[in-house]
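Backbone shape codes:
===
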Amino acid sequence: MRSNVVILAAGLGTRMRSQRAKVVHELAGRPLIAYVVRAALGVHPARLVAVVGHQAEDVRRVVEREVARSVGEEDPKPRLLFALQQEPLGTGHAALAALEALSAEEGPPYSPVAVVEEEGEAVELWQKWEESSVWREPLVLLYGDMPRVRAETIARLVAAHLEGRAAATLMTMLLEDPTGYGRIVRDAQGEVVRIVEETEARPEERAIREVNAGLYCFDPKPLFGALRRLKPENQKGEYYLTDVVGVLTSVGYRVRAIQSEHPEELLGVNTRQDLARLEAELRREICARWMREGVTIRDPDTTWIDAEVVIGKDTILHPHVHLEGETRLGEACEIHAWTRIVDSQLGDRVVVRNFTVIQGSRIGNDVRIGPFAHLRGEVELADEVAIGNFVEVKKSRIGRKSKAMHLAYLGDATVGERVNVGAGTITCNYDGKRKHPTIIEDDVKLGSDTMLVAPVRVGRGAMTGAGAVVIRDVPERTLVVGVPAVEKKKLEEDAGGSSSAG
């Protein structure tokens, strides 16, 4: 039987001290809720409901993007629903919003929260719900700030719930220090009676080490009835989802609890300290995984690799390398110290030297970059290109075997093959109002300190003298010099296709 999954992601996250919704804070380059969505999709739910509230549109975009990215063409696609929690009235209120969204989608045409207490109305509602499978399938609830939770753990909970035939099944943890967690209260026979939040617990209850992990599986109909009976009788004046357990057991329903085999995966993120701790743990795991895959990491303690990064075999990462976003490295690359690569694709055998920054770029095979180079904004380097010391390239395409080795800026430029860019060369692409293109054709040689005032084209096989200021197009196989640059002579084409002075 397929289940339905609800992710509670409407909280303000006040302890984060942030204007951003807690669940969109990033862990190893991926929003917290994206990890939870991926785990939920791993159990192939029939329906996935995200309860949103604070910065609802931002959270919604992350969830939609993760579903689109993670569900393959062969996988069963869940029906994705969003429930809006208008006011932050607690987790129980958020769960009720999720059931309302499911009801609107699958059940009767009116909202469950509108049902009155009269028995006749309630009976009629249950009969209508029987028409939809959503009210017979197990319902998983978990929080959007549990980034380490695994699909296997969710599946284990659902299996235990189906086997135990309880109204609710909880995942619990045994912690040496249970501070901050709701305690699991059991009766003399060991049966779960209720969950008491720490702020409401008596001293003897605070001593309990078995705590609520925040991962639940319910039968939907008893859950709905219990949610309707919740009251905000606590210090926060909120409707607690955890109070559902006491409501269910008080009217004769059985609630089961199974202990987590990996409690570390169920720890949530409530503070910046929690986020930093999980970041360190996850980064160590990511480095270990890539080393098992054949990547050499000289110093894992100082190497940062985001969760979406892919690295080819026999690549070497030196200390203090940061690989971020959706970066892809080919095989046998070497990335030297203090380099940052973001959302970029590198081919095979690429060498990136120290203190280089590469952002949003595509790099071919056998390319050499740096040290102290900066590539940004849709840069494309063909095979065997060399970009050297203190060279900046922005939104440009550099052709095969071209070189810019020293102190150059190439912006909004299209550079052909086998071009040599002299030290100090600049494409003057901005006139104060607009950006303009520069086109440099194959086999061009640009002298040191050449200024190319865009829009301008330098023809195939042309050459500029040192210090030339080029303000008009340069014909093929022509030498230009001076300020502004003027034609000096025509150049002969040698046997290799390049030009030389006659």
Q: What stands out?
A: The CA atoms of residues 142 and 214 lie 6 Å apart. The mean pLDDT is 91.
